[in-house]
Structure formats: C-alpha cells, structure tokens
Backbone:
C-alpha cells in the first residue's frame, strides 16, 4: 500500500483544529503528520488533542521537516501568500484557505513561485468537491431547470469580538473576503464563465473599519448573480438558483454538516402554484475529507488540484472589482 501523503499544518486556527484536521484524518490519501505554532505550547496541546505525531514551535521548523510533503495553510488572510510562498520555496505543495490572497496581484506572484518551484498550490474552497454541489452542477448542465438565469445568495453570521482576525482591516478582515468569496466562486463555477461587470455596496463597521455588510451583483452573459453577506447579522445561509423552467434551493450551501444528509430542493416553474417539488437528500459526508483526498490524489498522480491558482486569480479579480465598485459607485470590470 502506498504511504499516505504527509501533511503539516501551519498554525492552530479554529477552522483547522475543529474542522479541517479532523476531516483530513479520515482521508484515505492523507496523514496529518505535524502541526506548528509560534507558541510551542499551543502546538503541543493541539498535537496531543488531535493525536498528531509532531509539534513545532515555529512555522520555519515545520517547513524544514523533510518528511512533510504538503502544507495546509489556515493562517489569517494577510499571511496566506507569504507563508504559501515560503512553503513552496521549501518544496512543499500547499492547500491554502480562502481567500488565498488580499488581491489579485498577490495571486500572480503565487503563480510565479508555484511554477518556479514545480509544486501544486490550490485554494481551499471545499464546496467545489462536496457531492451536493457536484449534483447541483449536474442538474443545471442536464437542463433540469432550463437555462440558468439567476443565483441569489445570503450568507451571514454575527461576530463583534474585537480580537477576531475578521475585524482587522490590515489582516484582510471583513465579510467580502471572508464569506463573500463563496457565492462569487460558486456563481462563476455554475455559470461556467466570468462576469462581464460587477457592482458592489459595503457598510463599514465604525469601530473596526471592516465591511460588516457586503452586497454584490455579478452580470454574466447569460444571467445574474446577487449576493448579500454579513458579519453582524443573523446566522443564515441559503442559495436559490433560478432557471427558465425551474429552480434549485441549497439548504446548507457552505457549512454543510458532516453528520447528517444535506438537501437540494428541485422545483418546476409552477411550484408556487402547487407544482412539482422534490427534495433530494445527499448522504452525510465530510467535505474536508473529500477535499483532502482530492488534493492529495492530485499530488500523487500529478493531476489538477480541485481549485487551482488560475481559478483563484479569476475569483480575486472579481472581489477586487467589487471593492472598486463600492468606492466609485459604478459598475466595474474584473
């Protein structure tokens, strides 16, 4: 049996210790072999709690470990590119949390480093390998709702902790980068094209200076995508997908649970008038396990990672354009 790909984790971020590491520890292709923190005690505690063999008191020590083949980078947004570059320079493949950068220019530099050091680098949009989203795209491409015309997304949570990285502008905080990136990447993926122009509106927190309410409109050649994301609004997420003859609704589009099925509502054009409505259950799965195996397989088989840098670059261009639109009060081209 081929040895599992040896992974190291940079930092003890909440998403890493609560979701991603436990998910990847169930992988067929992955083994979490080491974790690092700038505080050795934190690394040791996380390693003990998660049964990880090695703990390091610096990121540099982890990158110097010759047994580590790939790095998972869940650091705060402003550290995504610098430490992904350092990992690539150390010969490690990198799965980096979204948003992979603070702007498109940073992704261009990441592409150069990737190509120079012949490693694989991808963005951790776990939704793109989740079976519910593969099924949604299959339904759309199969004509289940006619021609795709509109995507409407709401994604929100409430957090006013001043210590939270999401509230630090210099760290790439704010709702658009944090959760607005999800409806953007999924809309591009489902429409199968890039938006021609975008419009955005932001409401800034008076204390933090980050966007606590962000809305965007993406105009594609074949339809529109509209989204709202909030960091200080009621906890909620939902995506509605409208076609010419029907619609789809994804009940838990982003934080899909790993202990129960997810559901897709499939309705015909007359559903609100007692038309046909079906609810399709997608069996319970862990999207972080699926992502970890897919990324590891791409390394072992020299294939394409699930979300390559080229896609990450296109997504960041849209985000940059929405930020510009919020400043100029005009449509902007990505």
Residues:
């Amino acid at each position: 049996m081929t040895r599992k790909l040896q992974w190291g984790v940079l930092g003890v971020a909440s998403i890493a210790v609560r979701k991603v590491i436990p998910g990847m520890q169930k992988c067929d292709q992955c083994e979490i072999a080491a974790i690092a923190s700038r505080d050795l005690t934190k690394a040791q505690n996380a390693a003990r709690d998660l049964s990880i063999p090695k703990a390091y008191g610096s990121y540099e020590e982890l990158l110097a470990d010759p047994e580590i083949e790939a790095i998972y980078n869940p650091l705060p947004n402003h550290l995504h590119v610098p430490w992904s570059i350092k990992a690539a320079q150390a010969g490690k493949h990198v799965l980096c949390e979204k948003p992979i950068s603070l702007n498109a220019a940073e992704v261009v530099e990441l592409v150069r480093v990737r190509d120079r050091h012949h490693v694989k680098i991808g963005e951790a949009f776990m939704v793109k390998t989740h079976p519910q989203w593969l099924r949604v795209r299959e339904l759309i491409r199969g004509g289940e709702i006619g021609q795709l015309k509109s995507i409407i997304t709401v994604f929100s949570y409430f957090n006013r902790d001043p210590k939270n990285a999401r509230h630090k502008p210099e760290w790439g905080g704010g709702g658009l980068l944090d959760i607005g990136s999800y409806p953007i990447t999924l809309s591009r993926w489902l429409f199968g094209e890039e938006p021609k122009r975008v419009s955005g509106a932001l409401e800034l927190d008076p204390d933090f200076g980050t966007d606590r309410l962000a809305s965007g409109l993406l105009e594609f050649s074949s339809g529109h995508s509209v989204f709202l994301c909030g960091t200080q609004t009621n906890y909620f997420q939902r995506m509605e997908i409208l076609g010419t003859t029907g619609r789809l609704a994804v009940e838990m589009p982003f934080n899909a649970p790993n202990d129960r099925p997810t559901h897709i509502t499939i309705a015909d054009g007359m559903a609100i008038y007692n038309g046909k409505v079906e609810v399709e259950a997608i069996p319970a799965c862990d999207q972080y396990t699926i992502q970890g195996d897919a990324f590891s397989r791409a390394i072992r088989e020299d294939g394409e990672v699930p979300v390559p840098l080229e896609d990450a670059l296109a997504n960041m261009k849209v985000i940059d354009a929405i930020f510009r639109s919020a400043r100029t009060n005009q449509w902007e081209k990505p």
